[in-house]
């Protein structure tokens, strides 16, 4: 598996992967990804097996310690040199799930974030994914105040 930073040319595959991985009320729009890419291109990690796209992680730097619902749609909440990497999307295409790709990609995101001197990473996930994120080093902080997409979310943190 290879991992590289995303570019604006990747927006279509990123957006399509997001759409098949999240319900419509939760999925980021193509426009949201365009705005995120314009402000924070280093916040996109893409994984490939040969020429096959596997998935991606998208985040942004922030001085906020907790992920708020506003962060999903308001790319302007990005803070250059922010203390935390806030993860907004972790996506593996359905046909590639259960093969360890997401773990490898998350470990790279974690290593890159640590190398940039951040305090750590924060994300929210559904209850059935808490164990996955714990397996790569995150700690559950319990239910999040997020109601993004009308769902119940758990906040996860990995502090360095």
Describe the structure.
With 160 residues, the chain is of the alpha+beta class. It has a single domain, classed as Aminopeptidase (3-Layer(aba) Sandwich), CATH 3.40.630. Helices cover 29% and strands 29% of the residues. It contains 5 helices and 7 strands, in the order E-H-H-E-E-H-E-H-E-H-E-E. A 7-stranded mixed sheet has the order 1-2-3-4-5-7-6. Helix 4 links the parallel strand 4 and strand 5. The longest helix is centred in the last third of the chain and has 15 residues.
Q: Briefly, what is this?
A:
This protein has helices at residues 11-21, 30-39, 70-73, 101-115, 130-135, and strands spanning 2-5, 44-49, 52-62, 84-92, 120-125, 139-143, 154-159.
The level 1 CATH classification is Alpha Beta
Shape call: globular
Write down how many β-strands occur, each being a DSSP E stretch of 2 or more residues: 7
N-end to C-end Cα span: 26 Å
Total discrete domains: 1
Q: Which class of secondary structure composition applies to the elements?
A: alpha+beta
Low-confidence runs of at least 5 consecutive residues: none
Portion of residues in helices?
25-40%
Rounded to an integer in angstroms, the radius of gyration calculated over CA atoms is 14 Å
**CATH superfamily placement:** Gcn5-related N-acetyltransferase (GNAT)
Count of helical segments? 5
Beta-strand content estimate:
25-35%
CATH fold call: Aminopeptidase
Q: Roughly what is the average pLDDT, rounded to an integer? A: 90
Which CATH architecture? 3-Layer(aba) Sandwich
Largest sheet: 7 strands, mixed
Side-by-side strand order of the widest sheet:
1-2-3-4-5-7-6
């Amino acid at each position: 598996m290879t991992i590289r930073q995303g570019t604006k040319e990747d927006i279509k595959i990123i957006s399509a992967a997001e759409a098949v991985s999240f319900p419509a009320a939760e999925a980021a729009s193509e426009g949201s990804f365009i705005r995120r890419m314009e402000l924070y291109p280093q916040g996109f990690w893409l994984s490939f097996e040969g020429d096959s796209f596997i998935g991606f992680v998208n985040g942004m730097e922030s001085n906020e310690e907790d992920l708020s619902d506003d962060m999903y749609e308001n790319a302007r909440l990005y803070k250059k040199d922010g203390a935390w990497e806030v993860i907004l999307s972790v996506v593996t295409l359905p046909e590639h799930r259960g093969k360890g790709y997401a773990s490898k990609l998350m470990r790279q995101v974690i290593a890159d974030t640590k190398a940039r001197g951040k305090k750590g990473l924060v994300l929210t996930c559904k209850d059935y994914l808490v164990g996955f994120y714990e397996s790569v080093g995150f700690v559950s902080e319990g239910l999040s105040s997020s109601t993004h997409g009308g769902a119940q979310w758990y906040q996860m943190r990995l502090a360095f």
